[in-house]
Amino acid sequence: MRILRRPRAWAAVLVAGALLAGLASLPAWHGASATPQPEAPADTPEGEETVSGLELVVAPEAPVLTEADTEAKFAVLLRNTSEATAPEGSIELALGERFTGQSASEAAAAGDSGEAESAEATAAPRTVIATSQIDAVRPGSEQRITVSVALKDISLFTAAAHGVYPLYATYAASDSSVANSLTAFAPVVWEGPEPTASVPVGVIVPLTLPASVQSMPSRAQLGEALPRLDALVDYAVTSHGVLAIDPRIIVAIRGYGTEAPRGAPELLARLESTGIPSFLLQFGDADPAAQAALEFESLLQPVGFEFITRFGAWEATEPEPTEGDGAATGDAAAGKAAGAPAGTEAGAAAATSATASTAAASTDSGGSTDTNPGTGGDTDAEPTDSAEPADPEPGEADPEQPAAAPTDAALSAWPHGLAGGWPAPGQADHRTIALLRGAGVDLTVLSSTNVRLTGGPRASLGDGSALVTDSELDAAVRLALTGASETDRALGEAQAAARLALAANAGVTGLVIGVDRAGAAEHDHPERVLSQLTAPRWVDAVAHTALPEGSAQLQPGSSSEERTELLRTAMLNEPAVREVRALLEQPEYLDSYQRMRLLTLFGTRLAAPDEDFAAAAKQFAKRDQELRDGVRLVDTKRAQLVGGSTRIPIQLRNSLPFDAKVTLEVAPTSAALNLPERSFTNIELPEDSSERVLVPANSRVSSGESALLLTVSSSDGEFTAATGRLDVSISTTVETVAIALLGSAAALLFGFGIWRSVRRRRALSPRE
C-alpha cells in the first residue's frame, strides 16, 4: 500500500506544481501581449495614413505692437502638402523670454524643430497667452485662423519690458497617432528698443522685370511695369536708396522712342536727371557668379537690339555743330552718347564707339546690314526723284526722312551711374570679383554670408569696394515680398522688424538691405512693404555714402553644379539656334533675341536655393527647339490626284517671332508625276503664320502611287530648315467616271424636263 500511495503523492505534487506554474505565468503572458499594443497602429491601415507633410506658420498681423493697441492679433496657418487629411486639433500660443542679442534667427532655429519638443528644448520658460481650435485640413490645402489676445492679458508686455519676444505656436492633433505635434516660431516687437536707440540703414532698390519677360519687354509689358517702377523710384528718393536698374528697361524705353508706353519717357528722364545714385545690372539681371563659374573671360553681353527698334519711331533732331564741318559726324555724336563708363555692367557696347558697335553687330549677323534702321529694315528706302527738293543744309533736319534708330551704344549708355555689380547672394568667389574688376566694376554688392566683415557695411574689398547687405534682413524682406500666403508675408515683415529693432538696441553702426530682385518685380506694391519696414522711429534711412566704413574679406561661395552645367548646355546650344537666322528677312533679329533670352536664363532670380532651375532650363531648351524648328512643313500624310493635272497644296508654318523668306524645292520620286515647276523662291512667311504653296502637277499614268520630296531652305540654299515626303495617289479614272456621271445626270435632268413639258401641254390641249 505504501508503494501505491507514493506514486499518488508524487502525482498530486506534480499536478499542484503545474497549476501553480500556470497561474504564475498568466500575468507574464498578459503583460507580453499588452506591451506592443501602442505600436500596433503602425501595422494597421490607419497607421499608414499618418500625415507627415504638415507645415505650421505663425505671425503677428502687425509687425510692431504698441501700448496704444488694445489687442494683439496672431495669424496661424496649417498647410497640408501630404495626401492624407490632417485631423482637427488645438493651437497653443506662448511667449518666451525677451531677446537680448542682435538676431532672432538663432532663436527661431532653436524653437522650430518641426516635431514635438523634448524636455531639454522646453527648459526655457514660456508663458501661454492663448489656446484655440483648428479644423481638419484636406490634402493639398491650408487652414488659417486668427487668434486675438487682449494686451492687458499678456503679462510680459509691460511698460518696463519693451523689446522683442519669441512667439511659439504649437499644434496638437486630436489623434496623435495620425499627426505629430508641430511648433512654429515668430518674433514679436513690443514697442521696440529704447527711445534713443536707432540704426542707420541703407537700401538697394532694384528696378527689375517680372519672370514673364523672357527677353526684352514688349510695349504692353513695359506699360504694366511702369506704375510699380515709378513707385519704387519714389521710395528710393525718400529713403536715400541706391537704384539697381535692369538695362532692359532703359533700352526698351529708348528703343521704342515715341512708340513707348505713356509715362515711359518721363520715367527715363527722371532716372537720368535725378540725383539718386544708381548702377546698371547686367541685362536680364544675369549673374556674374555663374559666368565666373563657367570660366568666362568677360561678362556676357547682348549682340544688338534690332528686334526692339523695329517697333520704334523717333523724332528727327538737329545734329550738333562742330568747329570742323559745322555738324557732328554720326560716329562722334554716337560716341558722345555712348559715354558710359567701361566698368558698368550695362555692357561693352557702351564702352565702344557707335561704328564699332554697329560693325560688330553686322559681323555677328553674317554681314547683313539694316538698310532702314528706323523701320527695322522691313521696307526698302524710296528712290529719290530729281524733281524733289534738295538735301537739307548741314545743321538742319530733314522733316520727310524718318529718324534713324539710336545705335546700340546710345541705347545702353548710362554715363552718370556707378560702376556696380550684384552677384547672386552668397555665391561670389575670387573668380567673380576678378571678372567684375576686369569689366571695370569696382563696387560689388555682397551678402554678409559671403564676407567676413569688420566695421561698417561700406567696406573695402581688395582693390575695390563693397556694399555688404545683411543676410538675415535680406531673407526677411524676401519672404515679405514673395511669401506664398498672407501669413508667410506677415512673418517676413515681423522678422525684418525684429532684426532692425534688435540691431538698434545693440548699437549696430549700420545695415544695408538688398531688396530681393525677384520680389520687387513680382509684388504688386513692393514700395508699401519697404516703406513699412523703414518707417519705425528706430530706423534711420541714410544714403550709402553716409554708412560707416569697414573692411571685408571674401568668404568664397559657389553656384550649384546642376545650375552651372545646365547653363553651360544652354550656352553651347546657342550657335545651333542662331543658324536659323538664315531663314529670316532680318537675320540680326534672332541673334539679339536669342542672346537676350540666354542672359535672362542667367538671372539671379533663378539662383536661389528654393528655385527649380532644372524646370526653367527645361522650358528654355524647349523654346530653343521651337526656334530651331521655327519654319517647318505642316504634316500631311497623303494627297489624292484625281485628274490629269492639278495643284497640290503644300502647307508651310513659321513659328518664329520674326518674318521669314524661304525657298521650297519639290521633286517627284517617279516618272508618274510631271512637275512643270519645282522651285518656289522668295516665299514670305510673316511671323507666327502659315502659308500655302500650290504645286502644279501632271499625271502620266491613269492610276498608281508616287510621292513628292519636299525641302525648305534659306533663299541662298545654304541652310535647310525642313525636309519631308508627301505620298500622292494617282487615279485619273476617277475624273473620267465623275465627268461621265455628271454628264449622265445632266442629260437625264434635261430629258426629264422635256418630257414633263410635253406631257403638260398634252394635258392642256382638250381644254383649249
UniProtKB/TrEMBL annotation:
Q: Which organism is it from?
A: Leucobacter albus
Q: Where is the composition biased (Low complexity)?
A: 104-113, 324-340, 358-373
Pfam families found in the cross-reference section: DUF6049
Residue ranges annotated as compositionally biased, kind Acidic residues, are 379-399
Q: Which residues cross the membrane?
A: 737-758
Residues of the signal sequence?
Answer: 1-30
Residue ranges for the region (Disordered) are 31-50, 104-124, 317-340, 358-407
Query: Which domain of life does this protein belong to?
Result: Bacteria
Q: Which UniProt keywords apply?
A: Membrane, Signal, Transmembrane, Transmembrane helix
InterPro entries membership: DUF6049 (IPR046112)
Please report the name of this protein according to its UniProt entry. Answer: DUF6049 family protein
